[in-house]
Amino acid sequence: xxxxGVLALGVVGGGSLLCAVASAxxxxxxxxxxxxxxxxxxxxxxxxxxxxxxxxxxxxxxxxAAATGTQCFPSCRPGYVCGPQGTCVSACNxxxxxxxxxxxxxxxxxxxxxxxxxxxxASTQAKPADEDYYQPTADQDRPxxxxxxxxxxxxxxxxxxxxxxKFSDGSDPFQxxxxxxxxxxxxxxxxxxxxxxxxxIYSTSSIDLRRKDxxxxxxxxxGSFTLLGPFVDWYFKPDGGFHLQGAVGLTSSTVxxxxxxIEIQDFDGVGAGVMVGFGYEAYVSKMxxxxxxxxxxxxxxxxxxxxxNSKFEAGFISPALLFDATFH
Length: 328
Hints:
Number of strands: 12
Number of helices: 3
Distance between the termini: 135 Å
């Protein structure tokens, strides 16, 4: 057993001797390898330092992108986040009005070139379609315009002139005339821009009705001539004051004799007539306007005696100047 032990000891000793010889013959090999690896080691940390900085910047500029997997390039500016489609969207919810932008602290602030009073002018924004049937355009954007309910009350002065004819008792026809008051009451609604339809009463009366016959005038009594029927009133501009009106309908005529002439007692009758008028109004409040108008009526009627069987026909024309108040 002594020879195997000696042999093993010889092998180990020989290996150690070879390593010592190799180190003595090539002393720069190990340091050179170590010196070459050192720069690579220094470069690796530099690359490692740069990459985390870029990643952190991208994540900070677009937190939404990290959640959706999308990225915006270049990064969104403050007040915006990267949306699902890879585009920058406002970070404020709900979004800011026109003329405002979302700040970094998620508040809507006015743009530098836009006055801060811009949001107060909400009246310049489009109104809902169901608010009014008519929406003024930019050049008609005034506070008041004619729409919806229409009510007119008017009083003034007028006259009446005409002819009594075809007396049943054979009396001669004669002309008549007189002056007095005028009245108008109309109620309707707006059906289109500046166009009103409805019904009205248009009346002229005289407390001093006179007859003219053979160059002489004599007192007859009093009379009233009233038109009742549908009307149309058209404003040239929906927010303006000039308007044109017209009506057709039944006429109610009344003559009350003075008692001094047997041929003229008390008579009532009905017929047909027309009316046209032109006027101007100015708003004094949101719904009320005041103005004046010129009106002209014409008609005819068949009259019968109240206490007698006498009958005759009357044709008349009646101009009038009125002052009106209109709710519209």
